[in-house]
Amino acid sequence: MRFEDAGTLLKSGRYAAAYYLAGYSIECAIKACIARQVKRYEFPDKGLVDRAYSHDLEKLIGVAGLATALKSDTKANKNLDLNWAAVKDWNTSIRYNVNVSRSQAEDFCSACFGRRDGVLSWVKKRW
Q1: Which of 28, 51, 56, 78 has minimal Cβ neighbours within 10 Å of its Cβ?
Q2: Where are the domains of the chain?
Q3: What is the sign of the dihedral through the CA atoms of 108, 109, 111 and 112?
Protein backbone atom coordinates (compact mmCIF):
# COMPACT_ATOMS: atom_id res chain seq x y z
CA MET A 1 0.00 0.00 0.00
CA ARG A 2 2.80 2.47 0.89
CA PHE A 3 4.53 1.58 -2.38
CA GLU A 4 1.46 2.77 -4.32
CA ASP A 5 1.14 5.87 -2.12
CA ALA A 6 4.76 6.81 -2.79
CA GLY A 7 4.22 6.50 -6.54
CA THR A 8 1.13 8.68 -6.41
CA LEU A 9 2.93 11.32 -4.37
CA LEU A 10 5.90 11.29 -6.73
CA LYS A 11 3.64 11.83 -9.75
CA SER A 12 1.90 14.67 -7.89
CA GLY A 13 5.13 16.51 -7.20
CA ARG A 14 5.09 15.74 -3.47
CA TYR A 15 8.73 14.70 -3.48
CA ALA A 16 9.51 14.77 0.23
CA ALA A 17 6.42 12.72 1.03
CA ALA A 18 7.18 10.24 -1.76
CA TYR A 19 10.73 9.81 -0.46
CA TYR A 20 9.48 9.25 3.09
CA LEU A 21 6.82 6.72 2.11
CA ALA A 22 9.15 4.86 -0.22
CA GLY A 23 11.51 4.25 2.69
CA TYR A 24 8.61 3.38 4.95
CA SER A 25 7.44 0.78 2.43
CA ILE A 26 10.87 -0.89 2.66
CA GLU A 27 10.60 -0.86 6.44
CA CYS A 28 7.16 -2.46 6.25
CA ALA A 29 8.39 -5.12 3.83
CA ILE A 30 11.28 -6.07 6.09
CA LYS A 31 8.92 -6.19 9.06
CA ALA A 32 6.68 -8.54 7.08
CA CYS A 33 9.69 -10.88 6.89
CA ILE A 34 10.12 -10.56 10.64
CA ALA A 35 6.42 -11.25 11.22
CA ARG A 36 6.71 -14.50 9.26
CA GLN A 37 9.04 -15.74 11.98
CA VAL A 38 6.08 -15.83 14.36
CA LYS A 39 3.36 -18.40 13.88
CA ARG A 40 -0.29 -17.44 14.06
CA TYR A 41 -1.55 -17.39 17.64
CA GLU A 42 2.02 -17.70 18.92
CA PHE A 43 3.19 -15.29 21.56
CA PRO A 44 6.38 -13.81 20.04
CA ASP A 45 9.73 -13.73 21.77
CA LYS A 46 10.10 -10.40 23.59
CA GLY A 47 13.67 -9.98 22.32
CA LEU A 48 12.48 -10.31 18.73
CA VAL A 49 9.69 -7.82 19.34
CA ASP A 50 12.03 -5.33 21.00
CA ARG A 51 14.54 -5.57 18.13
CA ALA A 52 11.75 -5.20 15.56
CA TYR A 53 10.63 -1.91 17.11
CA SER A 54 13.09 0.07 15.05
CA HIS A 55 13.14 2.17 11.91
CA ASP A 56 16.79 1.35 11.19
CA LEU A 57 16.70 -0.66 7.96
CA GLU A 58 20.10 -2.28 8.46
CA LYS A 59 19.17 -3.45 11.95
CA LEU A 60 15.82 -4.72 10.71
CA ILE A 61 17.54 -6.72 7.96
CA GLY A 62 19.49 -8.43 10.73
CA VAL A 63 16.37 -9.07 12.83
CA ALA A 64 14.68 -10.56 9.78
CA GLY A 65 17.60 -12.94 9.33
CA LEU A 66 18.41 -11.51 5.92
CA ALA A 67 21.85 -10.01 6.53
CA THR A 68 23.81 -12.93 5.07
CA ALA A 69 21.59 -13.16 1.99
CA LEU A 70 21.79 -9.40 1.44
CA LYS A 71 25.56 -9.41 1.74
CA SER A 72 25.83 -12.26 -0.75
CA ASP A 73 23.32 -10.80 -3.19
CA THR A 74 24.74 -7.28 -3.14
CA LYS A 75 28.19 -8.72 -3.76
CA ALA A 76 26.87 -10.61 -6.80
CA ASN A 77 24.63 -7.81 -8.10
CA LYS A 78 26.17 -4.34 -8.47
CA ASN A 79 22.81 -2.67 -9.14
CA LEU A 80 21.25 -4.16 -6.02
CA ASP A 81 24.35 -3.08 -4.10
CA LEU A 82 23.97 0.51 -5.33
CA ASN A 83 20.26 0.49 -4.57
CA TRP A 84 20.78 -0.85 -1.06
CA ALA A 85 23.49 1.77 -0.48
CA ALA A 86 20.97 4.47 -1.44
CA VAL A 87 18.18 3.04 0.73
CA LYS A 88 19.88 1.67 3.86
CA ASP A 89 20.38 5.03 5.58
CA TRP A 90 16.75 6.14 5.23
CA ASN A 91 15.21 7.24 8.49
CA THR A 92 11.95 8.71 9.68
CA SER A 93 13.38 12.19 10.19
CA ILE A 94 13.16 12.68 6.40
CA ARG A 95 9.48 13.43 6.91
CA TYR A 96 10.52 16.82 8.30
CA ASN A 97 12.66 17.69 5.28
CA VAL A 98 10.63 19.71 2.79
CA ASN A 99 13.62 20.25 0.51
CA VAL A 100 13.73 16.91 -1.27
CA SER A 101 14.20 17.55 -4.98
CA ARG A 102 12.44 15.76 -7.78
CA SER A 103 15.64 13.99 -8.80
CA GLN A 104 16.37 12.90 -5.22
CA ALA A 105 12.88 11.47 -4.84
CA GLU A 106 12.94 9.77 -8.25
CA ASP A 107 16.36 8.24 -7.60
CA PHE A 108 15.34 7.04 -4.15
CA CYS A 109 12.05 5.60 -5.38
CA SER A 110 13.89 3.87 -8.21
CA ALA A 111 16.32 2.31 -5.73
CA CYS A 112 13.39 1.15 -3.64
CA PHE A 113 11.02 0.00 -6.35
CA GLY A 114 13.10 -0.98 -9.36
CA ARG A 115 11.52 -4.13 -10.77
CA ARG A 116 14.71 -6.04 -11.33
CA ASP A 117 17.19 -4.81 -8.74
CA GLY A 118 15.12 -2.66 -6.39
CA VAL A 119 15.28 -3.27 -2.68
CA LEU A 120 11.55 -3.99 -2.42
CA SER A 121 11.78 -6.66 -5.12
CA TRP A 122 14.64 -8.28 -3.24
CA VAL A 123 12.78 -8.26 0.09
CA LYS A 124 9.56 -9.58 -1.49
CA LYS A 125 11.40 -12.70 -2.62
CA ARG A 126 12.07 -13.45 1.02
CA TRP A 127 8.68 -13.07 2.62
Answers
A1: 78
A2: 2-124
A3: positive
